[in-house]
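Per reviewer request, we include the raw input and output of the structure prediction for the construct analysed in the revised manuscript.
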Amino acid sequence: MAFTPSQKLSITNQLATMIVDLAEVPFDMIGGLEPETFTLGPTVEGSKLFKGRGKFHSHGCYPIGPYRSTKEYILACYDRESTTTPMPPKTLSTRTLSQTSPFKISF
């Protein structure tokens, strides 16, 4: 199905409105939704699951959530993207991250 430019703009505006509305809803944890129960579950890395990483997206390889804080989520992302051997988030400190990252990281 092909969309006209005005249809594409309308869809984009509707999606942006939904994202802004959802951003205003507070959540206690970061994660995904279990489809059958709509309860909090692990994150879903859809874009990476289809690139062969699905077999690694498990608690056995790295923390996949749900996460109790932004810091816990960021450390898990760092672990997932920068190490080949899983590293529990507790072993990474702000000092470790600042020594190995080109970005200024503070919590």
